[in-house]
Amino acid sequence: EKHSNMEFSKTAYKKSALHALKHGSRDCVGLLIRNESKIIDAIPLFHECVVGSALDAAFHMIQDFYLTPNPSYKIVGVYEASVSAKTTKFMSSTYRILDVIREMSLSAL
Fold first, then answer.
1. Is residue 2 a part of any domain in this protein?
2. Largest separation between any pair of C-alpha atoms in the chain
3. What is the DSSP letter of 35?
């Protein structure tokens, strides 16, 4: 499924930007949620080192309280804000989060 021109809601844009601004001295990472037509929300996750158990707990809470009641909502991506303007690589925590998203997508098939 290709979403090269996915539209962002104002809510998703503002929440991800405000997460980064609030924790400007730390790396920030969160999830992007879409419905059938656009990215509708951003869920801030971490602004510190990501621990596996905390990541698992976050995904379970998002699934139980956000995705299950709204079957058309899907996790479709990750946003990150690095404190280093010079970096061109994703943070290691982003790769871990993407792996969890990939596993969730495969188990949903």
1. no
2. 40
3. -
Residue 20 to residue 27: CA distance in whole angstroms: 8
Token pair recorded at residue 58: 């976050």
For helices 92-107 and 52-62, give the axis angle rounded to 10 degrees.
40
Per the structure, how many domains does the chain have? 1
pLDDT, tens digit (0-9, with 9 covering 90-100), for 71-102:
999 998 899 988 877 777 888 888 888 888 88
* Nearest alpha carbon to residue 83 among 16, 25, 12, 23: 25
Domain that holds residue 61: 7-107
Contact 73, 66 (CB under 8 A): yes
Residue 51: pLDDT over 70: yes
Stated as kind and residue range, the H or E segment containing 99 is helix 92-107
How confident is the model over 5-37, as pLDDT tens digits? 779 999 999 999 999 999 989 889 999 999 988
